[in-house]
Specification:
371 residues; 3 domains; eleven-stranded mixed sheet; five-stranded mixed sheet; Fumarylacetoacetase_C_sf; Fumarylacetoacetase-like_C; Fumarylacetoacetate hydrolase family protein
């Protein structure tokens, strides 16, 4: 659940304690409550972490005890953004979804044709380069151009809002897919923590649950495909950047995925960040754009993983079943584990910004002078 080198790591996150959602720092084998100096994680990421002094809650070993409540997503007031189609293989799969009109039964026959036409050509391209422009012209002439290829190799990345502040769930929570979706999958990703100044303060893991049938029918259904109750899991903690963990560790990370179904089905996958087509700093720059996020934002960086293994019938490929356990891990960040249910059956999202403000006020934390 925590980094393999946890003794050298500084982690930030949120725990649901008796008083309410509480920001914590984990360092030197101790879990510290920091809400007096930083009522929210958004506040915490604005500060010099070395100057933050928390109150000892318990030692790290006690973190895994079942005696207290649960882990929350490590983000609170931040908007949850995501970059899409940042790997060549994901671009190919999006084109397949588009041409299949979201029908999984047509995907297998289309996949071979699309892969043969564009697979090798886009894998080594730099987005927005002259070579990318030449390929675009060729594909348009051949009638093979797609809106997904535009964001895969064009100058502008796909950046969308995955979900609202406080809507993401944490480690151990149920994660939801729409009950009316018949073709969907997890998306194991690295998620960056960015403060109001556009500084990348650390990284964690996320599951950008995707409904392939909805988005495949129309890209205008992206919001319905992406933003649903319990459809965004992040955690367990943000590993903050320091001399032991930097953005270069993100650039070289290997993100592992394991799915175990109640039907005995298992699936393993991996996403190699070294194969991303746009550098994480460039994705942050495009996500921030000309806008200012006063509470900062989280940014999913996209995934190389696109499951094509047949689960039930030949040619159908993969889709989730209720009860699937999804584990996303990388050694220097830890592991995010969630069990799949439907968005309808998952606990409803009821605790919003108003509730958080009322809770912090009742605890006298809004009077804190945040540095």
């Amino acid at each position: 659940m925590i980094p393999v080198d946890s003794a050298d790591a500084v982690l930030a996150g949120r725990l649901l304690l008796d008083d309410g959602p509480t920001p914590v720092l984990i360092r030197d084998g101790r879990v510290e409550v920091v809400s007096r100096q930083a009522p929210t994680v958004s506040d915490l990421l604005e500060q010099d972490i070395s100057a933050v002094r928390g109150e000892h809650l318990f030692d790290l070993d006690a973190l895994f005890s079942a005696e207290w409540k649960r882990f929350l997503s490590p983000f609170d007031l931040q908007v949850i953004k995501a970059a899409g189609v940042t790997f060549a293989i994901s671009a190919i799969e999006r084109v397949i979804e588009e041409r299949a009109r979201g029908d999984y039964r047509a995907a297998a026959s289309i996949r071979e044709k699309v892969e043969a036409a564009i697979g090798g050509a886009i894998r080594s391209l730099v987005p927005g380069s002259e070579a990318a422009d030449r390929l675009k012209a060729t594909l348009i002439e051949d009638g093979l151009w797609s809106q997904y290829l535009e964001v895969a190799i064009g100058p502008d990345a796909e950046i969308f809002t995955k979900t609202a502040p406080l809507a993401s769930v944490g480690w151990g929570a149920e994660i939801g897919v729409r009950s009316d979706s018949s073709w969907n999958n997890p998306e194991p990703e690295v998620v960056l923590a960015v403060n109001s100044r556009g500084e990348i303060r650390g990284a964690t893991l996320g599951n950008d649950v995707n409904l392939r049938d909805f988005e495949g029918r129309s890209a205008l259904l992206l919001s319905k495909a992406k933003d649903n109750n319990a459809s965004c899991a992040i955690g367990p903690f943000i590993r903050l950047f320091d001399d032991k963990f930097t953005l270069d560790d993100v650039r070289t990370a290997v993100v592992e995925l394991d799915i175990e179904g109640e039907d005995g089905f298992t699936l393993k996958g991996r996403s190699l960040m070294s194969e991303i087509s746009r550098d994480p700093e460039e994705l942050v720059r495009q996500a921030r754009s000309e806008h200012h996020y006063p509470d900062g934002f989280a940014l999913f960086l996209g995934t190389l993983f696109a499951p094509t293994d047949d689960r039930d019938e030949p040619g159908r490929g993969f889709t989730h079943k209720i009860g699937d356990v999804v584990s996303i891990s990388t050694p220097k960040i830890g592991a995010l584990v969630n069990r799949v249910t439907t968005s309808k059956a998952a606990p409803p999202w009821k605790f919003g910004v108003r509730d958080l403000m009322r809770n912090l006020a009742s605890r006298g934390l809004l009077e804190t002078e945040v540095q």
